[in-house]
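Narrative of activities, Objective 1.

The group set out to show that a structural description can be obtained from nothing but a protein's sequence at a throughput compatible with the screening campaign. Below is one input-output pair from the validation batch, recorded exactly as produced.
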Amino acid sequence: MPRPKSLTTADLAAAALAVIDRDGLPALTMRAVAQQLGMATMALYRYVPDRQRLEILVADAILGSIDVSPPPRTDWRERLAILLDRARAAISAHPAAVPLALRHRQTSPATTRWIEAMLTVLTEAGFTGRDRVIAQRVVVDFLLGFLQNEHYAALAGAGTAAMAELSAAEYPLLVDTATQAREMSADDEFRGGTELLVLGLSARLRHRP
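Output recorded for this entry:
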């Protein structure tokens, strides 16, 4: 008769996240998680079949922490910005695990709840049909692109620094822009990008055929 299971999916996800937060994503293995839980590696297989399943549990835990409750009944632009900020904050809380949250986002119920909340805001703003599809895609693309840049393209990092050192005579605009970028924080860029996104969506509503 098999031993009754005593660990929950939350326990497994927490142990996997602890490994990733401490040692990085490449360190996520069945053995490492088993050690984190204080159990034999083979015993872990009673709960999860492989690393892929561990990845999904981690993604669910991260995405599940996103607050999808309706933002305060303010202007739709502000509510959209709030939902974007909540998603960024939850995913960025575990920088090394960002790829898992992005890779497995479509398998997580938390993602569908966040998208439904965002679609509610867009619908109340006046987006319908194809326009709503495009607006939602643009919002998601902005968030995913920013998260990848923030954590894996080294915003204001070595690449930007190298561009700032190029010849100003040959690349005046690039050098000036890179120099400015080096002085900006990720928060500055996210807020600025959100503002531009909202302005574009607002313009679309005003100038629809």
